[in-house]
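As the next step, I wrote out a protein sequence along with its fold in token form, included below for the reader:
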Amino acid sequence: MPNGEYLRYVALGDSQTEGLGDGDDEVGLRGFADRLAEHLAAADPEVRYANLAVRGRLAGQVRAEQLEPALALRPDLATVVAGVNDLLRPRFDAAEVAGHLEEMFAALTATGARVATVTFPDVGKIAPLARPLRSRVFEFNAHLRAAAARQGVAVADAAREAVATDPRLWTSDRLHASPLGHARIAAAFAEAVRLPGSDGSWTLPLPPRALPTAAQAAAAELRWVAGFLGPWLGRRLRGRSSGDGRAAKRPELLPVR
């Protein structure tokens, strides 16, 4: 498809695609998918956009719940982002999780849609207490890149860029991108699918910042444990998910505005 001729964009995924960290449930969530849709609509106001993502979903749930509705919408462009929630579970199989994504890649590309995905940055550089998960992230990214290559899927390879671990691109929970982070992810996708006006500026470092003292860093870790890790573990022990009872925020193709 010629550059920029994407009139039907469908986003599949979990909380990152839903837009957590960029707005809230009171004022509404924006997120990288909304921002990418806005980029598309700036070139052509006829663009229609659907977002099927639901927070808390595992990759297999994204495939089971969102793939068929996405196919029914006949997208020209689709983004598929999932796997972080799987990474956090005690039992994690990188090949199995990537396999769910590859099934979605294959089904969507078979319809002629342009498909794109994104790799995950080094979590140990974002949340020091999460360093034990680094090997999982690296293994999953390797499987994800291989699956994308087999299916002709574009990859916004954020994991290779140092700026992706800048704390200013992440919210205080260190799992969801901040508004600035979502803007960078959207720009990365725009470059990956070669949208007009896109470039590699999303990889540029942010201005220098004052580094926290050791005491400040330690206090931040304690706040993270109390504010995010503790509640997350509590939900797991109760068999709950942040996405329980939630549906896709934008299940139909609608004008971007």
About this structure: The chain has a mean pLDDT of 90. The first strand starts at residue 8 and ends at 13. The first helix runs from residue 15 to 18. The radius of gyration is 18 Å.
